[in-house]
Amino acid sequence: MVATTFPTKFGLSVSPFIQRGVQPTLLTSTKSLYSCNKFNPTVLSLIKAQAFNILPTRPLYHLQDSIFFHSNSSQGMLGKVLVVLFVAGLAWAFPALLPPPPRTCGSPGGPTVTGPRIKLRNGRHLAYKEHGVPKETAKYKVIYAHSFGSTRYESAVAPLETLEELGAYVVSFDRPGYGESDPHPKRTLQTTALDMEELADQLGLGPKFYVMGFSMGGHSVWGCLKYIPNRLAGAALVAPVVNYWWPRFPANLSTEGYNLQLPQDQWALRVAHYAPWLVYWWNTQKWFPYNSVISGQFKMSPPDIEVASRSAKHASEIQKLKEYAVKQGVFESLHRDMMVGFGKWDFNPTDLKNLFPNGEGSVHLWHGDEDWVVPVVLQRYIAERLPWIQYHEVPNVGHLVMHDPAMKEVIWKTFLTGKKE
């Protein structure tokens, strides 16, 4: 029988087997009933996957020695069959866990680049779109972060007439992995905030600028408040998605908000937080419902239904924008968003200090009381913990607050001028 020493360089401990007097070897004999020869590539792939944190560590491999290791003890035929079935199952399941590589814009065979981009210091590209008055004459300069599954073309950006009235220049950008911005596999709240800072510097927006984020784009604004506070003239969070695992959230409130989600979304969020290596498989498998927003089956409040119905005439255009958003692949856009947004944060937003103690700027938070996507109860708590945030709870308004033309104008004017309409 030929045996190959198990590669311990991947960080897999073999000491439990050695302590039991078992030789830590991987069988390669085709004559042995223990033979796993035809599955060896899969096993090795799993080992490598564990080394790169694609699979959970240790538990998969700390099994009985009859699974991957040879011992001198007798085994029943049933155990041998189970070994083969188990490894066969791994061989079948492993490819489904790994997302395909992104089709980076501008790369050979990848999607074409159709708009302006900047090249960041680390070599990645960030696509952007300018709105409003020329930045050279603008009174207000704003960087806008789009929502989940959207792009720099998001209609939540104020119409030209409003921006001209305000004297505002707005630059929206495709967050990493979306649209035509390069994917960033190591994306965090901090890296996105630094991307926004570099975008401002390369476009010449000056030492200070405003930031606004809608829905999932709110995470980018929280990142700016934490990591580049000295660059901000003001900030606006509009219906920002919350992370239910922020440590300062009271358990009862966090549970209340979490339980308001659809069961399939509760599971999707659990996976994003506790098992990010499963996010791709979870949101692409067909066995049971996955994230409702990704599937387009999320529950909408009556106000949101009304807003959406007014957009029905633009259905074909909206569909094209959705496809544009994920043209480099769903993993580095939608799925990465979930892993970053609902994963472990390096800071607690409710611990942030007032950026503008002398009133030289302001931070706003808008939320509709009929938002069924992001429960308003958690925003109320944030407003209590951070009284320096100007909290605007809008009655009879849902999550699509920035797609309501009247509300959108009110939000932009209040944010930039401080005057409530």
Give the distance, in angstroms, between the N- and C-terminal Cα atoms. 82 Å
Separate helix tally: 16
Average pLDDT, rounded to a whole number, is 81
Spans of at least 5 consecutive residues whose pLDDT stays below 50 are 1-74
Supply the CATH class of the largest domain. Alpha Beta
CATH superfamily of the largest domain: Alpha/Beta hydrolase fold, catalytic domain
H/E element string? EHEHHHEEEHEHEHEHHHHHHHEHEH
Proportion of β residues? 5-15%
Task: Summarize the main sheet.
Answer: 8 strands, mixed
> What would the principal axes of the Cα set say about the shape?
globular
Number of domains: 2
| Neighbour order of strands in the largest sheet | 3-4-6-5-7-8-9-10
Rg measurement, Å: 25 Å
* Helix percentage range: 25-40%
Per CATH, which architecture of the largest domain?
3-Layer(aba) Sandwich
- According to CATH, what is the topology of the largest domain? Rossmann fold
Q: Structural class, from helix and strand content? A: alpha/beta
Tally of extended strands? 10
Structural commentary:
With 421 residues, this protein is an alpha/beta fold. The chain has two domains: 3-97, no CATH class; 117-417, Alpha/Beta hydrolase fold, catalytic domain (Rossmann fold, 3-Layer(aba) Sandwich), CATH 3.40.50.1820. Helices cover 38% and strands 13% of the residues. The protein has 16 helices and ten strands. It has helices spanning 15-19, 40-51, 65-68, 77-97, 160-166, 189-203, 218-227, 251-259, 263-274, 279-282, 292-295, 302-310, 315-325, 331-342, 376-385, 405-417, and strands spanning 3-5, 25-27, 117-119, 125-132, 140-145, 168-173, 209-214, 232-238, 363-368, 389-394. The strands form two sheets. Strands 3-4-6-5-7-8-9-10 form an eight-stranded mixed sheet, with helices on both faces. It has a two-stranded antiparallel sheet with strand order 1-2. Strand 9 (363-368), helix 15 (376-385) and strand 10 (389-394) form a beta-alpha-beta unit. Helix 2 (40-51) crosses helix 4 (77-97) and helix 6 (189-203) packs across helix 7 (218-227). The longest helix is centred in the first third of the chain and has 21 residues, at 77-97. The radius of gyration is 25 Å and the shape is globular. Residues 1-74 have low confidence and may be disordered.
